[in-house]
Amino acid sequence: MFGIGMPELIIILVIILIIFGAGKLPEIGAGMGKAIKNFKGATAESEKIEPDKIEENKES
After folding, report:
1. Does 11 have pLDDT greater than 80?
2. Short-list 31, 2, 3, CA closest to 16
3. 21 secondary structure, DSSP code
4. Are 17 and 25 in contact (CB under 8 A)?
5. What angle do CA 53, 35, 40 make, to 5 degrees?
């Protein structure tokens, strides 16, 4: 996982908890989830559009 082991991940999570506090963590998690969902949707959409553009360029 990107060269990050369990101890490093725990340290990062503790630092985030100290900076943002326990009350903000659900909001941050929800925002990150929405961002990942939007990114996956955009990636899937671009994969669907790109083959169409390639076919149009071959025909031209």
Report:
1. yes
2. 31
3. -
4. yes
5. 35
Q: Is 2 helix (H, G, I), strand (E, B) or coil?
A: coil
Residues 17 and 58: their CA atoms lie apart, in Å, by: 53
Q: How far apart are the first and last CA of the chain?
A: 44
d(CA 56, CA 37): 29
Residue 4 pLDDT > 70, yes or no?
Answer: yes
Locus of tokens 């991940």 = 9
Per-residue model confidence (pLDDT) at position 3: 80
The mean per-residue pLDDT over the stretch 19-40 comes to: 90
Nearest to 13 by CA among 2, 30, 29: 29
Provide the greatest CA pair distance for the chain. Answer: 58
pLDDT score at 36: 92
